[in-house]
Specification:
The complex is a heterodimer of chains A (146) and B (159). Chain A has 146 residues and is α+β, with helices and mostly antiparallel strands. Chain A is built from two helices and five strands, in the order H-H-E-E-E-E-E. Chain A has one domain (2-141). The longest helix of chain A is centred in the N-terminal third of the chain and has 60 residues, at 2-61. In chain A, 24% of the residues are buried. Chain B starts with a helix and ends with a helix. Chain B has a domain at 50-158. Chain B has helices at 2-61, 150-158; strands at residues 68-73, 76-85, 88-97, 100-107, 118-122, 126-132, 135-140, 143-148. Chain B is 43% helix and 36% strand. The chains are: A alpha+beta (146), B alpha+beta (159).
């Protein structure tokens, strides 16, 4: 009787130990998975910020809306948005290759007394979600130098 | 039958111990891999930001007509940011030297002194170009960025 109880206690102890081990494994595996995900997101965000800033700089250096599209090397989608594909390192990629990031640029023109104020809404997204958004403006004078 | 049961009873703790050790080993391997990837990602982001964003910030800070130019560094291109202080002209020069982006500041007529230049970030490749008047390009192994020279462009438009 005494021996049987000892054996049962041993098994209960073993089961508790295994359960604790499984619980620890689950928690740690989730923690590691989250760490990996956050690391990947940080890298993607860093790349997306760089892509958007680069496009904003190109807008600042362009002479017109059309010139900006040429400078960016973007294609125009059906709704008039400019789109440009980038690879995983954030370098411009050919449209045929599956892109790691896509830069979408919506442009809005506002007429001004002596020119046009162009507002650009940049959105950098991967295949599932928008990673970074940036809004910037550029004034195009009708008579440069004035 | 009794012998087999006793053997199993002896083996059981060993198997349990082996299972725990293997689980811990698996966790350690997975953890190390994830930690390495996270550190590598952080280092990449930090280096890229240190190199590319620093360049853009320095150019924007010094953006005056004729103040930004591309010169020759000890191992390729050098970004030259010129400023006037009365009659004297000073230059900030940023260039690649011995695997790092370096910056030095001094009178414009003095030659480069890469040994005493300040280290900005570890870098292997550094190229500069002017895609068009008023648009500078800087290429490194972390990618290529464009930097608009607003004052240069305004000066070009005025001309």
């Amino acid at each position: 009787m005494h021996k049987s109880r000892r054996g049962a206690a041993f098994y209960v102890e073993t089961i508790l130990l295994v359960l604790f081990l499984l619980l620890s494994l689950t928690v740690l595996a989730r923690m590691l998975g989250t760490a990996r995900q956050l690391s990947r997101e940080a890298r993607q965000l860093s790349c997306a910020v760089r892509i958007a800033q680069d496009a904003a700089e190109q807008l600042a250096a362009s002479d017109s809306r059309e010139d900006f599209a040429v400078l960016l090397g973007a294609r125009q989608t059906e709704d008039g948005t400019l789109a440009r594909a980038y690879n995983a390192e954030g370098a411009p990629a050919a449209d045929a290759i599956p892109a790691a990031y896509t830069l979408l640029c919506r442009l809005e023109e506002t007429a001004q007394p002596h020119g046009v104020l162009l507002t650009a809404y940049f959105t950098v997204c991967n295949d599932s979600e928008a990673l970074y958004e940036l809004e910037t403006q550029k004034y195009f004078c009708a008579q440069p130098g004035k | 039958m009794k012998i087999r049961k006793e053997t199993w009873m002896h083996m059981y703790p060993l198997l349990l111990f082996a299972m725990i050790v293997l689980s811990l080993l698996f966790l350690m391997c997975a953890g190390t891999e994830v930690y390495s990837a996270a550190v590598e990602g952080q280092a990449y982001n930090r280096q890229a930001r240190a190199a590319l964003s620093y360049l853009a910030a320095r150019v924007h800070a010094a953006d005056n007509a004729g103040a930004v130019s591309i010169g020759a560094g000890p191992e390729g291109d050098a970004l030259v940011l010129r400023e006037r202080a009365g009659d004297d002209v000073y230059e900030t020069r940023i260039y690649l030297y011995e695997g790092a982006l370096r910056e030095e500041y001094g009178p414009a007529d003095l030659p480069l002194r890469p040994e005493s230049a300040e280290r900005i970030a570890a870098l292997e490749r550094f190229f500069l170009g002017e895609e068009r008047p008023g648009l500078l390009t800087a290429a490194t192994e972390y990618g290529e960025i464009h930097i608009a020279l607003r004052c240069e462009k305004e000066a070009a438009d005025d001309a």
